[in-house]
Design a protein that fits this description.
- α3 (105-113) runs parallel beside α5 (157-170) and α5 (157-170) runs parallel beside α6 (187-204).
- The strands form two sheets. This protein has a six-stranded mixed beta sheet, sandwiched between helices. Strands 2-1-4-5 form a four-stranded antiparallel beta sheet, covered by helices on one side.
- It has a domain at 95-172.
- It has helices at 51-59, 81-84, 105-113, 127-139, 157-170, 187-204, 215-220, 239-243, 247-258, 265-269; strands spanning 6-17, 25-36, 40-44, 66-71, 74-75, 88-91, 175-179, 208-211, 224-229, 232-238.
- It has ten helices and ten strands.
- β9 and β10 (232-238) form a beta hairpin.
- With 270 residues, the protein is an alpha/beta fold.
- The two termini are 33 Å apart.
């Protein structure tokens, strides 16, 4: 891996919530992680493993107690959330987040496209922009290209997640963060959104981190899988080893490394 460009380097990331109280919780425990340019990493772990905390630490929702985060050679450790926003595209679990429901589809896309432009936001969407958005929407296969003036709040959960995914990747981010982005969807819709995810990641060659509770999804998507427990990474599987993974072999590996059985029914039944 020495010849591959490092996109993300996390060193000794530590975060404790409510320190010094009876509710003290170590969420990240000296976590180290290196992600290379173009990696599609899935993250699995039980409740309280530190998955969402990792996402929030990356995007600056809260500061680390100690440790360092370097993104594409830029030390973002002390940058506030709003200054990191231009580097990350993030899709949340809740389909209501990530879009402006009272605005039209085309206006949402314009917001995403112009997010890091310095010349100010002109609300008029040009014909050229509309054609660009129409082509991009058609890729989703949901017919949204024919509904560009529809208010986003009228879309279904799956349509909104697909749109949010498109918005997060419209201007190529340094990293795409998918925070259980299909967890609130029914199985059929979730499968469709994951299929769209694979296409967008592959076409854009996007470095991606996808948190999921679903072991089957973690195994079948991406080129690398990491499993977290108690704020640490206890398994890191890639290449041919990941291709051979099954839920059974992953559980077996977890049991051997942790000395206990994996206890999340949600992950197993997903």
């Amino acid at each position: 891996m020495a010849d591959r460009k490092v996109m993300l380097s996390i060193t000794d990331a530590t975060k404790t919530f409510n320190p010094g109280t009876v509710n003290s919780k170590v969420a990240l425990d000296g976590l180290d992680l290196t992600i290379y340019d173009g990696d599609f990493v899935t993250v699995i772990g039980g409740n309280g493993a530190g998955k969402s905390t990792l996402m929030n630490a990356l995007t600056g929702v809260f500061p680390l107690d100690c440790g360092k985060i370097v993104l594409d050679g830029i030390d973002v450790t002390k940058l506030p959330e709003y200054k990191r926003a231009k580097y990350f595209g993030r899709v949340f679990q809740d389909p209501m987040m990530g879009t402006a429901p009272d605005m039209e589809i085309v206006e949402n896309l314009a917001l995403a496209y112009r997010r890091d432009k310095r010349h100010g936001l002109k609300w008029e969407v040009t014909k050229q922009e509309q054609e660009t958005y129409k082509v991009q929407l058609a890729r989703l296969g949901l017919g949204l290209e024919e509904r560009m003036t529809a208010k986003v709040g009228l879309l279904s959960g799956g349509q909104r997640q697909a749109l949010t995914l498109l918005m997060a990747s419209l201007v190529k981010p340094k990293m795409l963060l998918l925070d259980e982005h299909t967890a609130a969807l029914d199985p059929k819709t979730a499968a469709k959104v994951l299929s769209i995810t694979d296409e967008i990641v592959e076409e854009g060659k996007l470095t991606t981190l996808m948190v999921t509770h679903n072991m089957k999804d973690a195994i079948s998507h991406g080129n690398r899988l990491i499993m977290m427990k108690d704020g640490r990474i206890i398994l890191d599987i890639s290449g041919e080893d990941k291709k051979k993974l099954t839920v059974e072999t992953l559980l077996d590996a977890f049991n051997k490394v942790s000395g206990e059985e994996f206890s999340s029914d949600r992950a197993l039944l997903g």
